[in-house]
Amino acid sequence: MEQSPPSVVADEEPKYGGYSRFEIELEFVQSLANPFYLNHLASQKILNEPAFVAYLSYLRYWTRPPYIKYLNYPGPTLKHLQLLQEERFRQDIISPDLAQTLAAEGVTASVDWHKGD
What's the superkingdom here (predicted)? Predict the structure, then answer.
């Protein structure tokens, strides 16, 4: 059974540890913007687990309205979410060099954006 995305209105959702499913999933999907966190997940073999891969696929709802507007860093968050859909990337991100490269690309993109390029 495929689960539907949570309601944006948190008051309509049950609470888990005081937070709605929407809030929990928002916090998690935003953590995917951090390439070093992705490297950590790979080193713990979490990215190899079929249930987690299915969860990553489910999280693609964040690419669509109304959810996308809640992301603080939509660029890297959605880029990494898309890359995580690919088995090859899930294997390659275990490399600290790849995590460092992604982090450097993120810094460069941020600097360029602030310069107005």
Answer: Eukaryota
User: For each of the chain's 117 residues, which pLDDT tens digit applies?
Assistant: 567 888 776 566 788 899 999 999 999 999 999 999 999 999 999 999 999 999 999 999 999 999 999 999 899 999 999 999 999 999 999 999 999 999 998 877 665 665 775
Instruction: State the DSSP code for 19.
Output: E
Q: Which long-range contacts (CB under 8 A, 24 or more apart) does 108-115 make?
A: 109/75, 109/76
Contacts of residue 47, defined as CB under 8 A and 6 or more positions apart, other chains included, come to: 38, 41, 53, 84, 90, 91, 93
The DSSP secondary structure of 74-86, one letter per residue, reads HHHHHHHHHHTTS
Strand 15-16 versus strand 19-20 pairing type: antiparallel
Q: Which domains does the chain have, with CATH numbers?
A: 10-115 (1.10.10.1340)
Encoding tokens for residue 83? 């890359």
